[in-house]
Amino acid sequence: MRLGLFGGTFNPIHLGHLRAAEEVSEFLALDRLLFIPAARPPHKNATAVTPFAVRLEMVRLAVADHERFEVSDLENQRPDKSYSIDTLRWFRKEYGDAADIFFIVGLDAMLEIETWREYRNLFPLCHFVVLDRPGYAAAELHHLLCRKLGCQAEPDGQIFHHPSGQRIYFRAITRLDISSTQIRRLAAQGRSLRYLLPDQVRRFILKYKLYA
Question: Is the pLDDT of residue 178 over 90?
């Protein structure tokens, strides 16, 4: 089993998220890719985040017709904040050591990983896939992984080997200049959301007047 885990607030999910997932899924020949909406994101103000059930439904709508994409409500099954270490430990226990688990994060998030709970214990649990982000330098990733975490970089600078034996992949993806913040702002202004997110998600937002 080659399993991808793509966490995030997804408030709302958009074509940038989906295209990134598609490219990673193809690159790694994943059997399944799970979108995992954060129920109670530890780095965000809970009152500013759309309710979990609403975000979960939008992700379900977005991935319904994809043969490898699924959505998990795992993080809403726990009463506390949505810490990645708890999620990864659950999947490692559920799938065992025979599964290759790939945790997908943006370069911006990876560069802040020292602020995550038990961040050093994350790396033995899975491989990481770090997605390039505009405004962030790959050299910063190299410094973090090699100088601080003891990883060894391959000559092309795209794959790093963690002392645990797991790998970190740095992956450039198609950059779609779309953000959830932008979509919420447009919705609040009553402007068009076409071609920024799946049409079924757009209709859901308009039907329930989300972000208005």
Answer: yes
179: closest CA among 2, 15, 5? 15
pLDDT at 154 over 90: yes
Q: What is the mean pLDDT of residues 145-159?
A: 96
Determine the average pLDDT of the residues in 29-47.
87
> For helices 52-63 and 199-207, what crossing angle results, to 10°?
150
- Per-residue three-class SS string for the chain: CEEEEEEECCCCCCHHHHHHHHHHHHHHCCCEEEEEECCCCCCCCHHHCCCHHHHHHHHHHHHCCCCCEEECCHHHCCCCCCCHHHHHHHHHHHHCCCCEEEEEEEHHHHCCHHHCCCHHHCHHHCEEEEECCCCCCHHHHHHHHHHHCCCEECCCCCEEECCCCCEEEEECCCCCCCCHHHHHHHHHCCCCCCCCCCHHHHHHHHHCCCCC
Domain 2-177, CATH among 3.30.420.40, 3.40.50.620, 3.40.50.300, 3.40.30.10: 3.40.50.620
Instruction: Using the predicted structure, report yes or no on whether residue 47 has a pLDDT greater than 90.
Output: no
